[in-house]
Amino acid sequence: MSEQNAALSWFTEQHGRAGSAFSLHVKALLHTEKTPFQSIEIYDTTDWGKLMVIDGCTMVSTRDNFLYHEMMVHPALFTHARAKRVVIIGGGDCGTLLEVLRHEEVEYVAQVEIDERVTRLAEQYFPELCASNGDPRAEFLFVDGIKYMAELEPESVDVVIVDSTDPIGPAKGLFHTTFYTSCCKALRPSGILVQQSESPLVHLDIIKMMRNAMRLSGFHAVRTLTFPQPLYPTGWWSCTMARKGADLSGFRERGAAAKRFATRYYNVDIHRAALALPEFMREAFGD
Amino acid sequence: MSEQNAALSWFTEQHGRAGSAFSLHVKALLHTEKTPFQSIEIYDTTDWGKLMVIDGCTMVSTRDNFLYHEMMVHPALFTHARAKRVVIIGGGDCGTLLEVLRHEEVEYVAQVEIDERVTRLAEQYFPELCASNGDPRAEFLFVDGIKYMAELEPESVDVVIVDSTDPIGPAKGLFHTTFYTSCCKALRPSGILVQQSESPLVHLDIIKMMRNAMRLSGFHAVRTLTFPQPLYPTGWWSCTMARKGADLSGFRERGAAAKRFATRYYNVDIHRAALALPEFMREAFGD
What we know:
The structure is a homodimer. Chain A is α/β, with parallel strands linked by helices. Chain A folds into two domains: about 60 residues, Spermidine Synthase, Chain: A, domain 2; about 220 residues, Vaccinia Virus protein VP39 (Rossmann fold, 3-Layer(aba) Sandwich). Helices cover about 30% and strands about 30% of the residues of chain A. The first copy, chain A, is built from ten helices and twelve strands. In chain A, strands 8-7-6-9-10-12-11 form a seven-stranded mixed sheet, sandwiched between helices. In chain A, strands 1-2-3-4-5 form a five-stranded antiparallel sheet. In chain A, α5 crosses α6. The longest helix of chain A is centred in the first third of the chain and has 13 residues. Chain A is globular. The first copy, chain A, starts with a helix and ends with a helix. The N terminus of chain A is likely disordered. At the A-B interface, β1, β2, α9 and α10 of A face β1, β2, α9 and α10 of B.
């Protein structure tokens, strides 16, 4: 660690499947540990603020996380008519929770992160993402999200947000029909599941698999949204929404236009834009 | 070169201003040369096809160039009522030219690239981008684009596409009011200038400077469009359109929907989506 602090260097993540790599210029390794679930490193970078790395993958930086967190939350919550009860699976850095709590209609959020250390380190190194952690509407549960969803009372929540790592390692089970079936059962009618769904350019097969699995698990409608995310492979990312017993053709545009909180990326035009499918995705999905 | 061919390795571009770097896994260095204007390298990659590097910057890969080339051409040509005469400044790899020539209304395209070697190497290593180079509507001029635009007959062209390298080195003069004034003069009424305008996330100052310079040079309306481009810094890129004596509020949606050529990224929804400005860009532009 002292050597890594001694000089400026680079943190590099190699994207095995994609044949590419992304690096950030780092000033110092601030923290490193091995938890029962994964290895976590925190770096200070020259231009991207703090950087959290999990199992060698760049997870969140101070500079660009707003893109991902806003897009994981606001499209789903402005599609649902009135989401009172929300579950976040993963999301230990609390950036997704912060965006959910901006919605006044939300009465309760369960933040279900398997690894408490992610949240403790976020509190220390990304305090701005944890600014609402004291909100009485938020409950922190450091348990297995798959088990949590399987045991949840049927028709008890409005929105489930799956903010997890990639479909390898601990998060693998979050991309299966068993998990989606639990989510569908736990959602009230017209409830929405939204999950990060990797890069349209290099993981299109994963997105197709997820969409098919969601449909097979009882969801009525599925839509994939895209947005920029420099920290993740190819810099272009997606989330996929699935809805129980209702379609996903529109959203509460007036509500989104009149929102009483600030965003840096999301707005009504961006919501519509994220729903636009490029030709190659349209062809792949048969839409 | 033999050593580089001996083993798999990486080509890395460090983004000085951004504190980041992007790498592609390469199998072989196929060609390297120093022209009177710049250094050019061609690599064979494991997952991205061929890669052209100019002065150390990744310019074009087989895999992802369709995003950039389609977005540099189709929004402008489906905004113009009927672009008969088009000028491309730069664009030596011929990918932009290929997309322009898909439009039947185009009667003449001048491809004005300062460095003939870029085009000769594209013919050899990116033949699919040069598939329309024999089209009788295309004229190849290997001259200085700034001088070419300054000497062009007033009100003689409909669309000018500036497909250049970054605003450092040989392309610097393409981001100045002197050049924009030449473009504005050379365009017919309602003519459109479109120029690649870097990353919204790390080059917002450059985009603002370009927009201001375009307005100061006599253009009536200016709009910035965004799109993914993995090969360029942050993976998120933009182009900026400026129009002479007319606004940029709409485009020929029916024409775009009925287009008689295939695209992989562009379609009517994507065109609309690209025009959506994220909150931070809206604030920066005062729109």
